[in-house]
Amino acid sequence: MSPEPTAKDPSTAPDQSHWSPRLWGTLLVLCAAMFLDALDVSMVGVALPSIGTELGLSTATLQWVVSGYILGYGGLLLLGGRAADLLGRRRVFLIALGVFALASVLGGLVDSGPLLIASRFIKGLSAAFTAPAGLSIITTTFAEGPVRNRALSIYTTCAATGFSMGLVLSGLLTEASWRLTMLLPAPIALIALLVGIKLIPHSAKEENHRGYDVPGAVTGTLSMLLLVFTVVQAPEAGWGSPRTLLSFLAVAVLLTLFVRIERRSPGPLIRLGVLRSGSQIRAQLGAMTFFGSYVSFQFLATLYLQSLLGWSALSMALAFLPAGALVALSSTKVGAVVDRFGTPRLIAVGFGLMVVGYALFLRINLDPVYAVVILPTMLLIGAACALVFPSLNIQATNGVDDDEQGMVSGLLNTSVQVGGAIFLAVVTAVVTANAPEGSSPQAVLDSFRPGLVVVTAIAVVGLLITLPGLRRSRSRDSVVVARSVPETAEDRVPVRD
Fold first, then answer.
1. Do 41 and 141 have their domain in common?
2. Which DSSP letter does residue 4 get?
3. Can you give the CATH number for the domain in which 154 is found?
4. Which residues cross the membrane (predicted)?
């Protein structure tokens, strides 16, 4: 009997230019998990009004239907990424996907707010393990270069496609029952799990002779959980309130303790030396500003279209559809574009498109012509997402050893989620501060504009972060990824920005 295939088999094959059905199947299973993560986030946002009405939830409680997922996802990504490296990527991915399916069923059957919020937290927790494990399976299965770039462009495209389809599907399903929006991911996750058991290659666990970094795992997870919780609650509690300030102080103390532990640990949860790479830092900060600006824009655009203009959930979803369609149609092409131009150029161009798109949305009025006022922004944002998100994933994982792919994947996903939580809270605070005393539609519209200016400014910051990478790309310098042990010739890893 032939031995079980391992994650290294495909990547060590002499030719991966023509993917086998098994390799395609593996990629599709991983894409399904990414698709579900994005689908779940967008669907619940549209269904919130119906959930609140049926379960009798207050606005503050209803917020936690969304925030509970963000808390579990953003707070446990670092742990999820390292767990994939240490316990086996396949095992972590499949177990977490099964938990996601069960939590989806639970969320669709509950009849109380606390149970619904608990199911959302469990789903976020499971996604915190499937996301970095799935990304690291790809980066250790597909050889670095054009083959991996193509796989990552398809994989990351599924997030945007899932988000766009979630908006449309939720608009349709909520008409029947909000419970359908909770239940829909369950059968998809179950099918992906069954197929994944058969197709996903076994991966050897990292040889762990240095023990498990339990103190780092505890302090790192607690700091991320508290950070996300504090940011989510700050708009309601007040940014200058004693509660918020003390929470931020506690986060700073925990992060300081976490860094000290990681610097001394023989087997750290996060090897801090990886952050000495300029390419890695730009990828992490770029992910924060990219997702932070987009989720904030989507929040404001939803308020504008549904609350102010009175559009239905389905009409609003269709308004966003061109952006998602553009990303989906470009999924198989982005990898080749990355091969030709490199990630820094594509990220810079993408951020430039986002800046223009957000700035154009400042023209909104109380009687907009969709094709003239809204559609150009959607198309520009769609093009930006198609360029930026795959490029950030490629840049973050290039030049990283296989036994640290889960760690870097968890770090990147943490940047995405924390960036989204922080910048959304900031934009919400700006809009709230400018909220009119009266209720005239024009006054409400005017209160949105400062928030849109902040969204545009976040995208500008993302563009500025990318620019140094353009200079390094032109000079073709290599980047030293420092390790926590004395440097040897093997520690000098050339990384293409």
1. yes
2. P
3. 1.20.1250.20
4. 27-48, 60-80, 92-110, 122-142, 154-174, 180-200, 212-232, 244-262, 283-305, 311-334, 346-364, 370-389, 410-431, 451-470
Which residues does 338 contact at the CB level (< 8 Å), separation at least 6? 149, 153, 346, 390, 391, 394
- Give the list of residues 6+ apart from residue 389 with CB closer than 8 angstroms, or none: 156, 157, 159, 160, 290
Residue 204 confidence (pLDDT)? 59
Question: In this structure, are 340 and 369 located in the same domain?
Answer: yes
What distance in Å separates the CA atoms of residue 430 and residue 300, rounded to the nearest whole number? 11
Compute how many other C-beta atoms are within 10 angstroms of the C-beta atom of residue 461. Answer: 18
Residue 460 contacts residue 290 (beta carbons within 8 Å): no
Residue 296 lies in a domain: yes
Burial zone of 25 (CB within 10 Å; 0-12 exposed, 13-18 middle, 19+ buried): middle
Give the tens place of pLDDT for each residue, 475-492.
Answer: 554 433 444 343 433 343
- Asked whether residue 231 falls in the same domain as residue 191, the answer is no
Q: Which residues on adjacent β-strands are paired with residue 202?
A: 6
The token duo for 315 is 């009409």
Strands (E), 83-241: none
Point out the domain boundary residue: 266, 287, 308. 266
Identify whether 373 is part of a domain: yes
Residue 487 falls inside a structural domain: no
**For residue 178, how many other CB atoms are within 10 A of its CB?**
24
What would the pLDDT profile of 467-477 be if each residue is shown by its tens digit? 988 876 655 54
Same domain (yes/no): 168, 301? yes
What is the C-alpha to C-alpha distance for residues 71 and 85, in angstroms, rounded to an integer? Answer: 23
pLDDT digits (tens, 9 = 90+) for 314-358: 787 788 888 888 887 776 678 788 888 888 999 999 999 999 999
What sections of 174-213 are H helices per DSSP? 178-183, 185-199
List, as one string, the DSSP characters of 404-426. Answer: GHHHHHHHHHHHHHHHHHHHHHH
Residue 132 has pLDDT above 80, yes or no: yes
Token representation of residue 484: 């926590």
